Amino acid sequence: MPNILMTLSGKLTIVREKFWVLELQSKCYKRKLEIESEKIKSNAEMKSKDIKKFCKHKEEAEKLIKRAVEQLKLSARSYHRILKIARTIADLEGNENIQQNQIAEALQYRPKEKTY
């Protein structure tokens, strides 16, 4: 009996994840309609001008990311990557603007620095 429940649970998880992917693709498609220059399939493909347009965030979120840039000495590329990840998190949570907690979560996904 537990094997059946585990199987059903696993299938539900897969269905839920596929639904999230489809929902994200739908949001990215709507954004793509507003971007005439290129076809963008995901938030990861956004260019810097698209990031400025679609990665709107509150003042407290801006303070957090600026502090992270200064303390962690992040490059412009890392800054943009964090904003794109935060945009994806905001999409999953159904938020139009990026919140401070979404910036914090995106920062956690940064790869750990290698020390030699």
Number of strands: 0
Order of helices and strands: HHHHH
* CATH topology group: Helicase, Ruva Protein, domain 3
Q: In what range is the share of β-strand residues?
A: under 5%
Instruction: Count up the domains.
Output: 1
Q: Helix coverage percent of residues?
A: 55-70%
Total of helices: 5
Tell me the Rg in angstroms: 17 Å
**General shape:** globular
Biggest sheet architecture? none
In round numbers, the mean pLDDT is 76
Index terms:
single chain; mainly alpha; Helicase, Ruva Protein, domain 3
Explain briefly what this protein structure is.
With 116 residues, the chain is mainly alpha-helical.
Write the layout of secondary structure elements.
Elements: H1 2-34, H2 48-54, H3 59-72, H4 76-93, H5 100-108
Helix pairs in contact: 3-5, 4-5
Please explain how this structure is put together.
- With 116 residues, this protein is mostly helical.
- The chain has one domain (2-108): Helicase, Ruva Protein, domain 3, CATH 1.10.8.
- The protein is built from five helices and no strands.
- α3 packs parallel to α5 (100-108).
- The protein is globular and about 35 Å long.
